[in-house]
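Milestone 3.1: sequence recovery, worked example.
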């Protein structure tokens, strides 16, 4: 066998078996996928927005202390002297905001920011499940293509050997031999391509789990085709409008912008703070020549009202209003996109079912057609190229059926993802369809 064929095959055959099924691959990805790990870190950072916003409503307490050395020369009509002394002191001040419109808006902003971080993590979790399933099935599909290529090559080899034998005994022409040889060379090239594609798909899966995938569990021969539940496209759209993480995230983004507008408007409002302070000072001397020790306690209200700041506050209010309109439009755009994607994915599931059923019937028909062609060839009414063409059509149908089954299952997950209902149990349901047997 050509070394170009052997190398990808050896890569496939010698990879360590680290995970057997979709569930284990998903667990590996949860531990090693960089996008998922980054999403978790982003969520951890985002939830801190809530306590940061709440802090603006709570009192602040500050402590300051100082020690100084004074060298003071005093000269009057009666005194001409120099005083050197040290002063120690400290001050504690408490401020409790009573009314600050900006602070209330900042707190609401922080809560929305934390909520958005949680929603974005859920979106990343669903995205991880989809990416893992797609990568897993991509490896299975590539393996199927390689298996079919090997099987087709074996069939063509038999046909080539038969053509050579018949030519030697005078019952076939040189054209039959050349046609069989040409088809043999073609399927050899297809096998090389298939082996290389499998290695590439395995590498893509390795990026997710940070390990070279081993032998993966395959789909069972039969696939129970189930329509979406409920079997009503508009109900799926309604569910997506209520549960889609993309829409929920955009709603929180809108709320953040709305509260930013409130903060800008709050710049025109007065503020009222309760303040309390205690200070202590111990001076070892003074201009009068004697030490001074003082203690001060203060409680009061501080009222401030901005009157004019060069038009900057009004400009910020106008900017915030424009940003709010932008966020509203983006939310509407997201709703439309989610509705469109829900309808398209629903139809993909329905069409996927029909395509799998049609290809299953086509496979049976092509198998019967190949049998008839072989019988016709044996009886001398069909040619060798007819047999080769029938074989090629059958194997192409098998490849298409294999891919259609994976596409159907992925479409089901995509529909739940876009509707916001995708859960790990859905992966478990697909995982139960996997077994260590090659597809039919």
């Amino acid at each position: 066998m050509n070394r170009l064929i052997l190398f990808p095959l050896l890569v496939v055959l010698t990879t360590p078996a680290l995970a057997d099924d979709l569930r284990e691959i998903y667990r590996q990805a949860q531990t090693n996928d960089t996008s998922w790990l980054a999403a978790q870190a982003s969520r951890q950072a985002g939830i801190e927005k809530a306590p940061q916003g709440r802090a603006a409503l709570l009192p602040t307490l500050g402590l300051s202390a100082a020690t100084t050395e004074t060298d003071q020369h005093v000269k009057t009509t009666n005194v001409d002297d120099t005083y050197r002394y040290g002063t120690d002191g400290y001050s504690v001040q408490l401020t409790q905001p009573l009314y600050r419109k900006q602070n209330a808006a900042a707190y609401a902003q922080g809560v929305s920011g934390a909520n958005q971080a949680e929603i974005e993590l859920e979106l990343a979790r669903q995205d991880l499940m989809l990416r893992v399933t797609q990568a897993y099935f991509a490896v299975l599909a590539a393996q199927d293509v390689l298996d079919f290529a090997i099987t087709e090559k074996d069939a063509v080899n038999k046909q080539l050997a038969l053509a050579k034998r018949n030519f030697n005994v005078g019952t076939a022409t040189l054209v039959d031999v050349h046609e069989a040889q040409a088809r043999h060379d073609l399927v050899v090239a297809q096998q090389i391509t298939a082996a290389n594609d499998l290695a590439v798909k395995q590498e893509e899966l390795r990026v997710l789990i940070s390990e070279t995938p081993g032998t993966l569990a395959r789909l069972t021969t039969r696939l129970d085709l189930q329509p979406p539940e409920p079997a009503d496209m508009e109900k799926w759209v309604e569910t997506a409008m209520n549960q889609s993480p993309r829409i929920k995230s955009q709603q929180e983004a809108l709320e953040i912008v709305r509260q930013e507008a409130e903060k800008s408007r709050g710049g025109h409002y007065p503020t009222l703070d309760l303040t309390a302070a205690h200070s202590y000072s111990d001076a070892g001397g003074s201009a009068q020549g004697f030490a001074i020790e003082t203690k001060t306690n203060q409680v009061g209200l501080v009222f401030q009202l901005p009157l004019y700041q060069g038009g900057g506050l009004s400009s910020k209010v106008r900017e915030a209003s424009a940003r709010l309109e932008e966020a509203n439009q983006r939310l509407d755009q997201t709703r439309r996109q989610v509705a469109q994607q829900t309808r398209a994915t629903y139809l993909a599931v329905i069409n996927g079912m029909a395509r799998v059923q049609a290809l299953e019937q086509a496979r049976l028909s092509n198998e019967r057609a190949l049998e008839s062609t072989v019988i016709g060839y044996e009886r001398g009414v069909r040619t060798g190229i007819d047999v080769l063409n029938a074989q090629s059509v059958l194997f192409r149908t098998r490849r298409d059926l294999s891919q259609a089954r994976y596409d159907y299952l992925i479409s089901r997950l995509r529909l739940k993802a876009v509707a916001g209902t995708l859960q790990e149990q859905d992966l478990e349901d697909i995982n139960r369809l996997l077994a260590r047997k090659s597809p039919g």
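The longest strand covers residues 80-99. The beta strands are 60-75, 80-99, 218-219, 271-283, 292-304, 434-435.
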